[in-house]
């Protein structure tokens, strides 16, 4: 007989084929053909394991195990979409771990080895990554009413294709309304080095870092690169390059590891080899556990932009797109998971998350538990992303215990 | 009766409708629908004015006036394609001025008021701008054997569409071989401020600036923008931004107006809001009349790239794509046009060109005359590009005299 561990790895391998890249990762951006294939595979997996499958209007994919009609649900999941050329663990591991754990608990309940008080559901949130369609954490954002359904459906990719068109084309735009859960749990790869450095197998996430995210638009004037004198230039790409270099130096000027400052997206108009850019737009992403550090960075950014306007003879507009402070996960969840880890004798550490997750949205809707498994060298959003097999299994085992408590006793 | 001036402006207005933009310019990149419409319009114009229309395999569009079968041709023209959101004068003015002047000379010959020794042809060179399909000056480059036909036909745009596919689809891939001309003439807007500053109406182009053009590829490593520590980052976009800012400063460090240094094109992978770039490619465009200044700038660029490798923890590759020195137009052409200007009493100046033109290719094949009309404020590759109506007419009049001499006496 096949062990559950073998089944878990063969399911994970099957899932990892959708959008597989030669470099050993996946490229499965939201609502692409590869994402649709992964979703259809997961749909079939859920039905084969006795879940009822439903979709809401933003394409969130739910698998329901209804023990008591009308009872509240415990919900557990993550996301199957990926960044371009990304790792196969980010999001996908959490979806499969949730499904595997919930399936086991469903089986136990059917054998009367478990006596749940609540129903249990798993979820694959739509478009957590936000690389093809902005903003990120789209499915959970709409579900938690932080983002309007209309705005999300109208979001378009670089070619002008909308979320709504793609969800409709692939058959993932549903009419289901999943009720507010009694609690939510998510397990994810850490994407940082803390657990590895500490030698621990499970991370109990206590807080999510604060962030300020901006779109910065640099407005210059289109001109001939050959014949336009330097003094006459209003070069928007030069202006944006100054911002990019100075934003990076912000992080270096701040106390060590207190501030993450990044620019990773750029749009240049007209982006021609012989024409100076008339307009260049970039993102500026500032993250810190300290609100004071974030406020300092925003003030410093404003000074940078003032200087860039002068040095590059351009006009700069900045638009705040995301802003939140260090925000805790609920103490009851942390206490519960700490208790379970001690009971199980599994090594654990309390850690913060710098990356956003669907649980960042859910935790403001209902009591939420967020768990990490270690990432080798902290590598993520990269085909080389890796988590050791033992850690994957330990995380799934741990999630079984957590969900078992959540569906029976609930959070104290 | 309509004056030739009225006809010239109504033809120019008709031509400027193809790819017209709300900002008063045109967007008519090579082999787009707008470019194809302009070419069909010009085809009809040529036939209506008794030219025989032919296309070669790279889509160069020729209009022939054959006075003596087998005699060599004098050729005159420019290009109808444009940069994105560009002015309507760049290239297009030169094509219409050539056609208008040649048509008049053809009429004079038919009336025996002119006794040509050579045949006369006009040309609309394919893809001078190079914004959609690289490299620029493609049609004249293939015609002058500086670029292979296969390479040019295989060039693709951002969506993977090839030159060959577009030329075939629009019906502009022909089999004609235009013979080597006895001489070539081109008139173009200056795209700089020299004539305006000097208060002159015609520029006699004596030399084209030297240039070194590179593709610089910055290779980093894809990672999560949120959770990857600054010390662990190999951020290719940060590396490219350092290059962009330092290349600009090269021009500022050099003697005033001796060096043009630009970056205007960038490709970022994966270009996602939450993923650090694994690879960013930019162009670096250095131009100067001084070979020494160019050599100095290339050495300085190498130092910049070495420093960027260290500061951004990336690897940098640079690939030289274009290299030429200050290069003269033929003395006979300059002497001829100076003589004509003095005879006509039109104000003129000898000027250099910083921008490349199709004549830059032709001048290495046959004796070539290059003429400029003034650009208001030197603005070009911009919808606000403008040349005064009187200057447009004076340029066409001047071209009539030049071509008249070239087809009768030839270059002394």
Automatic annotation (TrEMBL), chains A, B:
Residues that coordinate or bind Zn(2+) 2: 90, 129, 381
Superkingdom assignment: Bacteria
Residue sites binding Zn(2+) 1 per the record: 79, 90, 188
Cofactor annotation remark: Binds 2 Zn(2+) ions per subunit.
Record carries keyword ATP-binding: no
Pfam families: Peptidase_M20
Requisite cofactors: Zn(2+)
CDD domains: M20_bAS
EC number assigned by the record: 3.5.-.-
Keyword Metal-binding: yes
SUPFAM superfamilies for the chain: Bacterial exopeptidase dimerisation domain, Zn-dependent exopeptidases
UniProt GO molecular function: hydrolase activity, acting on carbon-nitrogen (but not peptide) bonds, in linear amidines; metal ion binding
Keywords noted in UniProt: Hydrolase, Metal-binding, Zinc
Signal peptide: none
UniProt record similarity statement: Belongs to the peptidase M20 family.
PANTHER family listed in its UniProt record: ALLANTOATE AMIDOHYDROLASE, ALLANTOATE DEIMINASE-RELATED
Protein name, as recorded: Hydantoinase/carbamoylase family amidase
Organism: Corynebacterium poyangense
Taxonomic placement: Bacteria, Bacillati, Actinomycetota, Actinomycetes, Mycobacteriales
